Amino acid sequence: MDSIDLRLIDLLRENARSSYAELARKVGLSAPAVHERVGKLEAAGTIRGYRADVDHEALGLGVTALIGIIEDSGADTDDVLAAVRAMPEVESCYFMAGVESYQLIVRVGTIAELEQLIVRINRTPGVASTRTAIALSTKWENRPQPGLG
Amino acid sequence: MDSIDLRLIDLLRENARSSYAELARKVGLSAPAVHERVGKLEAAGTIRGYRADVDHEALGLGVTALIGIIEDSGADTDDVLAAVRAMPEVESCYFMAGVESYQLIVRVGTIAELEQLIVRINRTPGVASTRTAIALSTKWENRPQPGLG
DNA sequence: CTGACTCATGGACTCCATCGACCTCCGGCT
DNA sequence: AGCCGGAGGTCGATGGAGTCCATGAGTCAG
């Protein structure tokens, strides 16, 4: 993991569809060398995958919200987690320090759907209560933090 | 925007480095047809870009936290936003309904760095106070929600 | 029926991905 | 010192992919 690897990671976070040839030109190596380095980064799990970044509004998922979950005192955390995992609207899920065990980032089409989702979460066994905050607008998301390569 | 477009988007959210030929096989079109469709989705802004999904821990950014910002009553929201935008640690930024005007997702290497970041945010003009919650673990992040294509 | 439009196909040409062969540097061993 | 072996690079070849373009099928309005 040297500075060339870091630059490759930065370049792929900027544009994951760059060709190996293009990456090679930018870092000053040959295409096969870049190919091998990227392959090793993938194998090591440093690069987990490549995702298209979409406009959720255009896909009918214009409502973003943060939902904090407070569990019952005797709740089985894994059961709550599994229930939440089964809900496709939950885009991200963090296990938190603090009263709210989980923090979810959810994406739905309408406020009505958000309401239904909240009801469903509140109904799942182990969940004592939830706290929801709605995002009025997304200033930016998943902005890559440049490495020092 | 038909069901084939939705499937292409799903496929690219799964693996943004799929070749056009592979996408073509999966959706049952020719490669040039897929090329044109994807190009149109990009031009329309439905696909905003392609990002490598990295293991932040491996890059020395193992600490994730959510920070809510409460603004001064007379604060200029744009100034606060610009100040936050200039901090590379802030990966995502949402403008929220509720007392906390902004919700940030930040990524740093150590708790000490998080402390410094919080201090810096609290010092910026227009910020009255902040509330920070630390993620102990990330269950999942940016999970693509499948379209109905 | 006809013309215009949309959208997919197939061919052609260029460029890329990827494999194998070889080269170079470096650390450890005889 | 000289040799060996591995890591990691370049180069060249080739099969396949990307992409441009001309063409053809299907659809709707007039």
Q: What secondary-structure arrangement, pairings included, does this model have?
A:
2 copies of one chain form a homodimer.
Chain A: H1 3-14, H2 20-27, H3 31-43, E1 47-54, E2 63-71, H4 77-85, E3 90-96, E4 102-108, H5 111-123, E5 127-140
Helix pairs in contact in A: 2-3
The first copy, chain A, binds a DNA duplex (30 and 30 nucleotides) through helix 3.
Domain HTH asnC-type (chains A, B): 1-62
Pfam family, one (chains A, B): AsnC_trans_reg
Organism (chains A, B): Paractinoplanes globisporus
Question: Can you describe this structure?
Answer:
The structure is a homodimer of 149-residue chains. Chain A is of the alpha+beta class. Chain A folds into two domains: 3-43, Arc Repressor Mutant, subunit A; 56-135, Lrp/AsnC effector binding domain/regulation of amino acid metabolism (RAM) domain (Alpha-Beta Plaits, 2-Layer Sandwich). Chain A is built from five helices and five strands, in the order H-H-H-E-E-H-E-E-H-E. Chain A has helices at residues 3-14, 20-27, 31-43, 77-85, 111-123; strands spanning 47-54, 63-71, 90-96, 102-108, 127-140. In chain A, strands 3-4-2-5 form a four-stranded antiparallel β-sheet, with helices on one face. Chain A is elongated. The first copy, chain A, starts with a helix and ends in a 9-residue tail after the last strand. In chain A, 30% of the residues are buried. Strand 5 (127-140) of chain A pairs antiparallel with strand 3 (90-96) of chain B, so a sheet runs across the interface. The structure holds a DNA duplex (30 and 30 nucleotides).
